[in-house]
Design goal:
single chain; about 325 residues; alpha+beta; 5-stranded antiparallel β-sheet; 4-stranded antiparallel β-sheet; 8 helices; 16 strands
Length: about 325
């Protein structure tokens, strides 16, 4: 008789149903949409559960709540699988088996892996993403886990919810722009399009999603409030196009032309992601002007925590 490697024996052994403290906590509709499916976005379907579940189960062995389990899986799934973010991946939307073979994955691949890892131990999970950031080129995908009656934003490798840089970038979105809306892959969802750029090459594809934009904008405003932007103010990020070689100064003035604050604008020497940052009161009339000039631009605060303003030189 030829002996098989222990890891292969583990894969071949039929998986037994395991009851966790959080088992059966989700409503039937959420469980059907976010625990039982074998695909997350538009990756190639595969039978990942017999392979992934034995890797995930030890991560949650000492967890007594779903919250603890989500954080344990997020923090440990990279080491357990050997998968990591890399721009050298062969494609964006790898399924779990492809990820375990190649190891190098995109943010979409990370989200697919994390969602499946959570589902493998009975925690409802789904992928969420935005097609286009407002202030830089690019997009992003992350995961959500359902527990304690609501969805929670989590990313692979993080030790807490609501990744700070993602919250900051979300606060810069213009939710009125169709490609800057935040969508959650969710089979019962009423939104019938999904930014395929999140998962694969191309523009749009039709798979069910739930529009989570307003919930995330509210989450971003609360996040900004805890990091120094009160509810009665709005951060404004100011860019100048085309960028000059010598930095001019932009001034924020009130209706009496009194200077409230000022800062240097970006130049050709600055990274394209660099923007000048000022704080705009939500009450009263305020204007932007270049120092030494009289022409000024009236500002209108928007509901979002951050507004991006592009001036023309």
């Amino acid at each position: 008789m030829k002996w098989l490697p222990a890891t292969l024996l583990l894969v071949l052994t039929p998986l037994q149903a395991v009851e966790y403290p959080w088992s059966n906590a989700a409503p039937a509709e959420i469980a059907a949409a976010s625990v039982t499916p074998d695909t997350v976005v538009d990756e190639i379907p595969c039978d990942w559960r017999p392979v992934l579940t034995p890797l995930v189960a030890p991560l949650v062995a000492d967890c007594t709540t779903a919250r603890e389990a989500v954080l344990a899986i997020s923090a440990g799934i990279g080491k357990a699988t050997g998968a990591y973010y890399s721009r050298e991946r062969s494609k964006h939307n790898m399924n779990v088996l492809e990820t375990l073979r190649e190891k190098k994955i995109s943010c979409t691949g990370q989200s697919i892996l994390l969602v499946c890892a959570l589902r493998s131990v009975g925690i409802p999970a789904r992928a969420v993403g935005v097609h286009t950031w407002n202030h830089i080129e690019g997009n992003h995908t992350w995961a959500e886990a359902w527990f304690d009656g609501s969805w929670h934003m989590i990313e692979m490798g993080e030790s807490d919810f609501n990744t700070p840089w993602v919250m900051e970038y979300i606060g810069m979105l213009n939710p009125r722009h169709p490609f800057q809306r935040i969508l959650a892959a969710y089979p019962p969802g009423k939104t019938t399009w999904w930014p395929k750029k999140l998962a694969n090459a191309g523009n749009l594809t039709n798979f069910a999603a739930e529009d989570a934009t307003q919930r995330y904008m509210q989450l971003a405003r609360r996040w900004y409030a805890t990091t120094g932007i009160p509810e009665n103010t709005q951060r404004i990020l100011i860019d100048l196009r085309p960028r000059p070689e010598i930095a001019p100064v932009v001034e924020l003035v009130n209706e009496n032309n009194e200077v409230i604050s000022s800062a240097q604008l970006p130049t050709t020497r600055n990274d394209m992601r660099y923007f000048t940052r000022l704080t705009l009161p939500r009450e009263g009339k305020h204007y932007l002007r270049l120092k030494g000039t009289q022409a000024r631009t009236l500002l209108h605060a928007t509901p979002e925590p951050v507004q991006i303003i592009r001036l023309e030189f």
